[in-house]
């Protein structure tokens, strides 16, 4: 039992979190002070008494993970990072010896270059495990972290060497509970019986528009019981003893995830603690802050005040516990390395996103074949050639493995399940939203994950894909059925605008390869990425395997675009630019034009993003500025092609949604035939002649 002085000091620390949050939001004149004030005791209890985390090394592989899913409450996390003295680490995993968050950063909350942006951002602020918001993303990502912990324990642990046994804690609110992604993720976590996962639900009954009576009457506890979770309740967020008992129960529960429902009051201690503005986007105001500090027994006019002994108190509990556990782990790992050198080396390589030697030694080479191979089938062969040599390359699909062909089929691959944590094939169920977020959680844990589905369903994954790019983590998204080639399934399943929308995401690499050998080279690029997510877009229908003795090798994929077929000498008269299945169409048109004495060049452009990373000299050699007669061919929206064909270039693209019909009929209906491409090229040459005549 705690003494009165201990309880008073606990309260002093809790109120320090609260007042730092209030002062930071007030100084920024924007932010969300209410939730940090209400949840300060919850976070304090978890961090001080239970979290296994070393502030001196926030990347320790077996640390417990803390996720703030309601990221608008970011000052709660920033206050903790500052008060516990978490140290900064750079992108090269080097410890910098400086604080991750300084008091000056907090004073500049939400300001340019502060380590305390409006919402927590992974890789920008050490100690932030994942970028959070939109709501629901954080808790869904935490499921991936928990899965990763279970998988790594199965793969790396040995008798007497429990390298991995970490827990994942995620704080969430009513908004997270309402978002559909959290329901998908909770269902998955319950099904998999992830006993290392705990969500802490801040049940405060407030959203931006007012009391949740307006919109939300779910019995959350019953819902989670139905998911297969353990459900606990703490009726007062300020009751440290009840919180301690709840977290003790979490640590003793190994057969299912746990939800702790914590009843709280927004802006605890504030005279207007139920005002929605204190939770969502407005400072309390100077007068209310003074009144609140008076209620805490705080100096009313003191700003950003940290009482003597508070930081030392955090160091005495969280800090010393974390350092001791970390040191014990390092000693165990040293002994583990001596006894099991191969998995120890693999763990180091996995944690640093490195590849094993010889990972690409079994990549297939595809012979020329007019009939060819579907993109998804070629990719399946490549994936199964790589995966045996990268043990932490794991993934699956949203109930579409038979169609996306992403199942690992080699001996020992197995299925990850509640009964087998070592399987490398994942069954995400029909949960595209959660799948994509879980992939982020896996990647943040240094596993190399992939997930797959139909390209049209990338719309369901888009928020998580965007976060992959924002966090600069190398998640692999594999999407098949990439065009009107889906045929009879019709416009609901035929992607048109998806390529353009994904190309618009900064930092995301999109790859739409043209044949089996381009797919090999695409995977070669993908596996070497360390800080960029990638979308691999593949066909359902067979693509001719191009004769690389007649045309350029597929190694040009690494540059994003390359000259596939060209004139014998000099510059071409017209450029045919294309991606994916339409590249072979351009090759047919090229041969027709060549037979008629027209000098054409075919440029395969599987990745615009990689192409834009090349030197200006290379780009000008592939797409010469002086050659203005240009045709682009792609079974997708025209958006973005103007960058490459100019305002006068011809565009054989989709201008509408597709239709339900066999593929060949669709190709004729929408103009994806050799004669249409040839006609467009000749029209471009006519325009060029007319322009030249006029200029003379």
Short description:
The chain is α/β, with parallel strands linked by helices and 696 residues long. It is 41% helix and 15% strand.
Give a structural overview.
It is a single chain. With 696 residues, the chain is α/β, with parallel strands linked by helices. The protein has 24 helices and 22 strands. It has three domains: 4-270 and 285-327, Rossmann fold, CATH 3.40.50; 369-544, Rossmann fold (3-Layer(aba) Sandwich); 556-695, 3-Layer(aba) Sandwich (Rossmann fold). Helix 1 (4-28) packs across helix 11 (310-339).
Main attributes?
41% helix, single chain, 696 residues, five-stranded parallel sheet, Rossmann fold, alpha/beta
| Main beta-sheet annotation | 6 strands, parallel
Instruction: Going across the biggest sheet, name each strand in turn.
Output: 12-11-13-14-16-15
CATH homology superfamily name of the largest domain: Thiamin diphosphate (ThDP)-binding fold, Pyr/PP domains
- CATH architecture name of the largest domain: 3-Layer(aba) Sandwich
Low-confidence stretches: 274-280
CATH class of the largest domain: Alpha Beta
- Output the structural class: alpha/beta
Distance between the termini: 96 Å
* C-alpha-based Rg, rounded: 28 Å
Q: Which percent bin holds the helix content?
A: 40-55%
Count of DSSP-assigned helices: 24
Query: What's the number of structural domains?
Result: 3
Classify the beta-strand content into a percent band: 5-15%
CATH fold-level topology of the largest domain: Rossmann fold
């Amino acid at each position: 039992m705690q003494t009165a002085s201990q309880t008073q000091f606990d309260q002093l620390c809790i109120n320090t979190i609260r007042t730092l949050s209030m002062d930071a939001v007030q100084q920024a004149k924007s932010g969300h002070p209410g939730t940090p004030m209400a949840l300060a005791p919850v976070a304090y209890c978890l961090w001080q008494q239970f979290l296994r985390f070393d502030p001196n090394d926030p990347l320790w592989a077996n640390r417990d993970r803390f996720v703030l899913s309601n990221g608008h409450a970011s000052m709660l996390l920033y206050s903790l990072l500052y008060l516990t003295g978490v140290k900064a680490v750079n992108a090269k995993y080097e410890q910098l010896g400086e604080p991750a968050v300084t008091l000056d950063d907090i004073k500049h909350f939400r300001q340019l270059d502060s380590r305390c942006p409006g919402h927590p951002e992974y890789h920008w602020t050490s100690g932030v495990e994942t970028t959070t918001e939109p709501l629901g993303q954080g808790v869904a990502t935490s499921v991936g972290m928990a899965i990763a912990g279970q998988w790594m324990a199965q793969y790396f642990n040995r008798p007497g060497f429990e390298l991995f046994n970490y827990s994942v804690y995620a704080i969430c609110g009513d908004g997270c509970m309402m978002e559909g992604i959290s329901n998908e993720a909770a269902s998955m976590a319950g099904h998999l019986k992830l006993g290392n996962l705990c969500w802490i639900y801040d049940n405060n009954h407030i959203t931006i528009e007012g009391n949740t009576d307006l919109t939300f009457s779910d019995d959350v506890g019953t819902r989670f019981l139905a998911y297969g979770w353990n459900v606990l309740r703490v009726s007062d967020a300020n009751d440290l003893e009840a919180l301690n008992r709840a977290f003790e129960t979490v640590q003793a529960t190994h057969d299912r995830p746990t939800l702790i429902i914590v009843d709280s009051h927004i802006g605890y201690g504030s005279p207007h603690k139920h005002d929605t503005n204190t939770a969502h986007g407005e400072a309390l105001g100077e007068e209310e802050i003074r009144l609140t500090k008076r209620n805490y027994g705080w100096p009313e006019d003191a700003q950003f005040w940290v009482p003597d002994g508070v930081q030392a108190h955090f160091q005495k509990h969280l800090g010393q516990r974390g350092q001791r556990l970390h040191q014990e782990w390092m000693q165990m790992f040293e002994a583990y390395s001596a006894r099991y050198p191969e998995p120890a080396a693999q763990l180091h390589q996995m944690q640093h996103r490195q590849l094993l030697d010889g990972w690409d030694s079994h990549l297939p080479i595809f012979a020329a074949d007019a009939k060819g191979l579907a993109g998804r089938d070629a990719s399946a062969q490549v994936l199964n050639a790589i995966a045996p040599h990268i043990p932490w390359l794991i993934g699956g699909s949203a109930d579409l493995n038979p169609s996306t062909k992403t199942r690992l089929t080699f001996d020992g691959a197995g299925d990850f399940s509640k009964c087998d944590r070592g399987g490398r094939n994942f069954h995400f169920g029909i949960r595209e939203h959660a799948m994509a977020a879980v992939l982020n959680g896996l990647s943040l844990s240094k596993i190399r994950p992939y997930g797959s589905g139909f390209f049209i369903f990338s719309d369901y994954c888009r928020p998580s894909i965007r976060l992959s790019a924002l966090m600069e983590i190398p998640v692999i998204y594999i999407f098949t059925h990439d065009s009107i080639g889906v045929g009879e399934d019709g416009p609901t399943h035929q992607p048109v605008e998806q390529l353009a929308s994904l190309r618009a995401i900064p930092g995301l690499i999109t790859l739409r390869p043209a044949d089996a050998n381009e797919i090999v080279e695409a995977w070669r690029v993908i596996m070497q990425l360390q800080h960029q997510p990638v979308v691999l877009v593949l066909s359902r229908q067979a693509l001719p395997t191009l004769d690389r003795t007649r045309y350029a090798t597929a190694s040009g994929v690494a540059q994003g675009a390359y000259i596939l077929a060209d004139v014998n000498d000099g510059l071409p008269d017209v450029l045919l630019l294309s991606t994916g299945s339409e590249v072979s169409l351009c090759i047919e048109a090229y041969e027709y034009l060549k037979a008629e004495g027209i000098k054409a060049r075919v440029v395969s452009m599987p990745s615009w993003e990689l192409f834009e990373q090349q030197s200006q000299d290379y780009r000008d050699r592939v797409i010469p500025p002086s050659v203005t007669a240009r045709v682009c061919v792609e079974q997708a929206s025209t958006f973005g092609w103007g960058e490459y064909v100019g305002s006068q270039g011809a565009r054989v693209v989709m201008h509408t949604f597709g239709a339900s019909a066999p593929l060949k009929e669709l190709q004729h209906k929408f103009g994806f035939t050799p004669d249409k491409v040839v006609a467009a090229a000749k029209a471009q040459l006519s325009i060029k002649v007319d322009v030249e005549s006029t200029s003379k």
